[in-house]
Amino acid sequence: MKIISVSQLTGYIKEKLESDLVLSNVWVRGEISNFKHHSSGHMYFTLKDQASALRCVMFKSRNCNLGFTPQEGMAVIARGYVTVYERDGQYQLYVEEMHRQGIGALYMAFLQLKEKLEKEGLFDQQRKRPLPAFPGKVGVVTSPTGAAVRDIITVMTRRYPQVHIILIPVAVQGDDAPVQIAQGIKLANTMAGLDVLIVGRGGGSIEELWAFNTEIVARSIYESKVPVVSAVGHETDFTIADFVADRRAPTPSAAAEIVVPDCTEIQKYLSALYQRLVMGMRNNLSALRERVDRAGESRVLKRPKDELYRKTQELDYMTRRLGQAMIVQLNGKKTALALQVSRLDDLSPLATMKRGYSICRDSKGRTIKQASKVRPGEGIEVLMLDGSLDCRVERVKEGNYVKKES
Questions:
Q1: CA distance 170 to 399
Q2: Model pTM?
Q3: Residues of the chain with pLDDT under 50
Q4: Which residue ranges form the domains of the chain, and what is each CATH number?
């Protein structure tokens, strides 16, 4: 029999709960009780129905964007994961998002479609197109009788009077609304010269805005060749159309401000640029005038020939130095040449012959350096300073008549 501690058993149960796929992401419906919003920002409460109760915690990082204030007795649906709080040994739901039960079914449909389209790449940021800076024609797909179209027209004509607004009237709520909105977007894409398209309506309940959470509208926005700005409801309202569109505007009026520039601001900006341009030109002209004045006062412009005279004088000086250097170089070369000639003259055979010596050559013209190389009776030639002698050797006397150097 194996005995384990309480902590070990609790840890084992916690591991089992956390490994369960159903409990790792579960939606729970119930009524809030024992609600406490701690000073740390975390929310602690219990979800209960007629038969059971479930302890819950929603941390500050998760409840900071909660669109309502939880209250005792409020019916909600909550999504989260189940695990064990080991200190108390109790399982509880860690809530990641929560909604009032009245919108639960629609919100579930919203989440399912959002997940599907996101996986298909309809929300990809890389495909979002920039809006034209100065649109000529703007299409508006909305109800012709709602406050949204009046707001859009009022804001655009005030900000950018030259814009051409094309209204494409559609139903924005009801069973026929999704099809009409999709057809309106397709119709806008057939119009020549349309630069941007606003698709939206004014605020309302989630049921009234639901047409913009449908797949047919989402795909028509995605397939639009004209950039689309989604303007649905109020600032806190988010729809599938917002995620697919190239830009989301928090309200229809904001969409008009996003789509067209403000002529008044443009005029102010251009006026500021003009003033900067004029000021820059004046500063440049002033700087150029100062340069011209300084140049006019310079010695070069006042007496331009002085520089020529100076250069001429410098040229004469350099010419004279060059001539002197050439003479020095030439004399040095002459002296060196005379020295070399003198050395060559000292080494010349003629100089030796001037001192009374002669040169002997055999019959083949080779110089005879040793007496032992000659035989009696051979003819030799004796070269002297003023001529040569043809002689015949009578006798060869061998002996060292030249004193060797020690």
A1: 143
A2: 0.51
A3: 405-406
A4: 6-110 (2.40.50.140), 136-261 (3.40.50.10550), 351-392 (no CATH)
